[in-house]
Amino acid sequence: MRQPPAPGAAGARPSASDDPPAGDRAIETRGLTKAYRGGQLAVDGLDLAVPRGSVFGFLGPNGSGKTTTIRMLMGLIDATAGSARVLGQPMPAAGRRVLPKVGALIEGPALYGFLSGRDNLWRFDAADPGADPRTRTQRVGSALERVGLAAAAGKKARAYSLGMKQRLGLAAALLQPRELLVLDEPTNGLDPQGMREIRTLVRELAADGTTVFLSSHLLDEIEQVCTHAAVMARGRLITQGTVADLSATVLGPHGHGRLTVTTPDGADAVRVLKEHGVTGLQVTDDRVTGDLPAGPSDRPGDQAPLEPADVNAALVHAGVRVRAFGTERASLEDVFVHLTGEGFDVAG
Ligand SMILES: Nc1ncnc2c1ncn2[C@@H]1O[C@H](COP(=O)(O)OP(=O)(O)OP(=O)(O)O)[C@@H](O)[C@H]1O
């Protein structure tokens, strides 16, 4: 079974040679474009590459074109230009072959409030011509189990919390084994507990080998659960890659953020850090922070950019008592601001 890389796994560098071959992509679009009536470009020349086995975050402020893209991928609306492949097949042409392998949760599940959770799933399953009625009870039972709703299965759906309704929608998407799950804003409107539940579920599904493509306008959500992300703004793709590589976009070749040293020997630490080309030094109580130089320092013999480990060794060597040492990672918010020059301030 395919295991996804750990969320935020570091190490990979963005380069064309690291791109997976086309057959290893769960979703691929070329120049995908949608102009709604009136000519406004909701999606503008999108080239998306979603590796199989990834948890791929499709990130952008409200109105940046995420839902429109998902609707095109699922064959719900036609593209104005460009092409899309899902699980290696052209969409919408191959929809009949592809869509049974895709579970989708778009704009919230359509549930009957007067039916129990179990009966809602029963209805979904019965509407699937490929689903064997003889094994329905078992399928519905294991889908409920999977999303943690077995105990609440007999309750009417209208009595469910928003988080439970989302999980029931996911259960409907999971009635059949899926290669790809497409979730449009799966945690929208959920409280922190509900969000955690959905994130846990997404991680479990990914660990089973399902590719998960989820859209969100919540940067920290994407950072917590996704291995890869694409960032959209005003219908255009700003960047895509592993979450670690996207951070490195902002942080330079080594992906290191601001350095923080906790020490009782602040003055000595500042002197050593300065000697090693660390800039922007600030001292607050027993914490010294600064920025690692992007390239090699001016010191004779230095050829490569400074590694945090070297700085730590130099401090210790100079007799500085280092109680804690670390570097921050850039957030996706940093990436967005860096690449667009705009803030990412959408209403949560
Ligand atoms: N049916 C439609 N007719 C005309 N314009 C539309 C339609 N649907 C979306 N748009 C416009 O297209 C742009 C992209 O919208 P879309 O819903 O795809 O963005 P989004 O990133 O999913 O945002 P949200 O999270 O708010 O749905 C927006 O400017 C929106 O107003």
From TrEMBL:
It comes from the Bacteria. Residues 8-24 have a biased composition (Low complexity). Residues 1-26, 286-306 are annotated as: Disordered. Residues 27-259 form the ABC transporter domain. InterPro entries: AAA+_ATPase (IPR003593), ABC_transporter-like_ATP-bd (IPR003439), ABC_transporter-like_CS (IPR017871), P-loop_NTPase (IPR027417). One of its GO terms (molecular function) is ATP binding. It holds the Pfam family ABC_tran. Keywords: ATP-binding, Nucleotide-binding, Transport. SMART domains: AAA. Gene3D superfamilies: P-loop containing nucleotide triphosphate hydrolases. Belongs to the ABC transporter superfamily. This is ABC transporter ATP-binding protein.
